[in-house]
Each structure stands twice: as C-alpha cells, then as structure tokens.
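Structure (tokenized):
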C-alpha cells in the first residue's frame, strides 16, 4: 500500500493517509519520514490493541498486541451482519459490557498451550509486568517451553 500512497501523493495536494495491514510501527514511521504518506490509518491494529498509538509514542512497540490479519472478528463479522470484534482482543467493540476489573487478592493466573506466538490474555502485559487491570503476574506454558508442566 505504501508505494500506491506515494504515487498518489506525487499528484495531489491533499494529505495522504495509508492503511491496510500497517502493523509495523517502524515501517509506518519510515514511510512518513520519507514523505511517502502523511499519516497511517490503524483500523484493525486498533481493534487488536487500542493502546497501539500510546505504546508506539512511549517507545514500547514490543508490547503491542498484533493484529493477525484473520478478519474473523472485524471484517468477517461485519460481512455476515454480526457486531464487529477481534479474535485477539475479546474486549474490542464491547468495552462497556466486557470491562476487566482486578480480581481480589493476588492469586496468579496460569494458562497452558494452544496459542500462537505473541498471544497473551487481554490487557495482561508481557514479562510479568503489573501495569494491567489484571496485575496478577499471568504466566503461560507452551509446547516449546521448558517450564511446560508447572508444579501446583
């Protein structure tokens, strides 16, 4: 999409915005810096991670929950008349009715296997950080993880 946006920008005098799988913040920033476009549209990436712009602005792009491009909860749902959502963010478009609140106490959260790389529960930050509403030190074990069978 960037080459198409750059070609349009050369012949018009209005701001050019580019969308369509602009998941890589470095690629987007490079395209803007090179004058190929004026701004980036973050439709599906914003459904996957509403904090995407804030994470980029604060220098934490590694914390972005990426859109996987499955089109199941967003475009796919709209095509069949269902309410939009997101496969990697179950809160998407349901923030008012599906708000996460901290659980009482400090019991840890655990989950095992069957997830794609980079997946984590909604609003649970990576690396055991405690900045999310959950703030319970969520830990996951997968097929290739040496800690696969934790002792309970």
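Design, position by position:
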């Amino acid at each position: 999409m960037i080459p198409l946006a750059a070609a349009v920008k050369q012949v018009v005098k209005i701001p050019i915005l580019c969308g369509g799988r602009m998941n890589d913040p470095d690629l987007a920033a490079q395209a803007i810096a090179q004058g190929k476009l004026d701004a980036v549209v973050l439709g599906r990436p914003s459904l996957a991670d509403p904090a995407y712009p804030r994470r980029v602005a604060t220098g934490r792009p590694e914390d972005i929950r990426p859109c996987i491009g499955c089109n199941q909860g967003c475009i796919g749902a709209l095509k069949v008349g269902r309410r939009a959502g997101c496969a990697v963010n179950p809160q998407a478009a349901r923030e008012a009715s599906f708000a996460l609140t901290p659980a009482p106490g400090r019991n840890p959260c655990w989950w095992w296997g069957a997830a794609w790389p980079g997946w984590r529960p909604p609003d649970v930050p990576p690396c055991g950080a405690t900045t999310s509403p959950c703030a319970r030190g969520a830990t996951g074990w997968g097929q290739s993880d040496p800690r696969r069978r934790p002792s309970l």
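Reviewer-requested clarification: The chain has a mean pLDDT of 77. The chain has five helices and four strands.
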